[in-house]
């Protein structure tokens, strides 16, 4: 069973009225499969593990006495879900909580978890869940800001002339011994697939294997600059291109994008099962 939905049918790029009452029907799932098929990823077996780490900074509701409550929310969406949630619909859905009454924060968390799980797994014979963690205002001070660790690729003084993805820029350094290396760049930028609005991000690449040519890798990252694609497939395209072109024995790609509409999206893909990275926002987020 497939979803009869496309990004063009969503609320992206349209004037939208904010719902003033809780409404789960606002969530607009988009299938992951079409863009994965474009990358040669077809079938139930994925070439990676991982999740999309979302942070919502604008969630509020009313307690039984009508007093507004608020929270920051961390969402963990497994990369195995057949769908993602279109981000504007996610924002409209979260704002529909604003004038609705819930018994307590746990009731809100359970409602979020149930609604998102239904939308993310909609159209699939499988069912699954999604991680939802609410942070109360008393916990806000513990939220950290940190940059992605790794050797800074942006230090390199390179000529950049390509602004659509160029996987042929990726290569390994011949004759060098294998390395375990983590590299990072703040120069990742792509555009929303529907509206063309810029999506600014940072990327961390950890791998084992023949050393990757760092200048070529940086130029490859920059080549996404005019590319129209959602955050999640951008991360998967980077993973797939490096995996195919450089043949590392292990690879992990972590992208952190700046927030829009109170939401940030941070995909993580890895070739081997491992713990998810900490959901620490960067300075630009």
From TrEMBL:
Gene3D superfamilies: 3.30.1130.10. This is NADPH-dependent 7-cyano-7-deazaguanine reductase. NCBIfam families: QueF. Catalyzes the NADPH-dependent reduction of 7-cyano-7-deazaguanine (preQ0) to 7-aminomethyl-7-deazaguanine (preQ1). Substrate binds at residues 85-87, 231-232. It comes from Pseudacidovorax intermedius. It is an enzyme of class 1 (oxidoreductase). Homodimer. The keyword Oxidoreductase applies. PANTHER family: NADPH-DEPENDENT 7-CYANO-7-DEAZAGUANINE REDUCTASE. GO terms for biological process: tRNA queuosine(34) biosynthetic process. NADPH binds at residues 87-88, 260-261. SUPFAM superfamilies: Tetrahydrobiopterin biosynthesis enzymes-like (SSF55620). The active site is at residues 192, 199. Pathway: tRNA modification; tRNA-queuosine biosynthesis. It catalyses: 7-aminomethyl-7-carbaguanine + 2 NADP(+) = 7-cyano-7-carbaguanine + 2 NADPH + 3 H(+). Its EC number is 1.7.1.13. One of its GO terms (cellular component) is cytoplasm. GO terms for molecular function: preQ1 synthase activity. Residues 18-119 form the NADPH-dependent 7-cyano-7-deazaguanine reductase N-terminal domain. Belongs to the GTP cyclohydrolase I family. QueF type 2 subfamily. It comes from the Bacteria. Keywords: Cytoplasm, NADP, Oxidoreductase, Queuosine biosynthesis. Pfam families: QueF (PF14489), QueF_N (PF14819). It is found in: Cytoplasm.
């Amino acid at each position: 069973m497939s979803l009869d939905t496309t990004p063009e049918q969503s609320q992206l790029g349209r004037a939208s009225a904010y719902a003033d009452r809780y409404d789960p029907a606002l969530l607009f799932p988009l299938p992951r499969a079409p863009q994965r098929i474009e990358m040669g990823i077809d079938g139930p077996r994925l070439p990676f593990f991982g999740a999309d780490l979302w942070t919502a900074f604008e969630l509020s509701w009313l307690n039984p006495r009508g007093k507004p409550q608020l929270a920051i929310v961390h969402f963990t969406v497994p990369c195995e879900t057949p769908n993602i949630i279109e981000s504007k619909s996610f924002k409209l859905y979260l704002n529909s909580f604003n004038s609705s009454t819930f018994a307590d924060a746990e009731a809100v968390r359970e409602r979020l978890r149930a609604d998102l799980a239904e939308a993310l797994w909609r159209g699939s014979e499988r069912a699954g869940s999604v991680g939802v963690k609410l942070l109360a205002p008393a916990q806000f001070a513990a939220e950290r800001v940190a940059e992605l660790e790794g050797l800074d690729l942006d230090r390199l003084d390179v000529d950049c002339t390509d602004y659509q993805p160029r996987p042929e820029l990726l290569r390994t350094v011949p004759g060098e011994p294998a390395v375990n290396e983590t590299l990072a760049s703040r120069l990742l930028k792509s555009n929303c697939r529907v509206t063309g609005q810029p999506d600014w991000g940072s990327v961390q690449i950890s791998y084992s294997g023949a050393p990757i040519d760092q200048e070529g890798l940086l130029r490859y990252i920059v080549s996404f600059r005019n590319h129209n694609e959602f955050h999640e497939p951008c991360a998967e395209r980077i993973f797939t291109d490096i995996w195919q072109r450089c043949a590392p024995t292990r690879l992990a790609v972590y992208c952190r994008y700046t927030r829009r509409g109170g939401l940030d999206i941070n995909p993580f893909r890895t070739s081997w099962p491992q713990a998810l990275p900490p959901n620490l926002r960067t300075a630009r987020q």
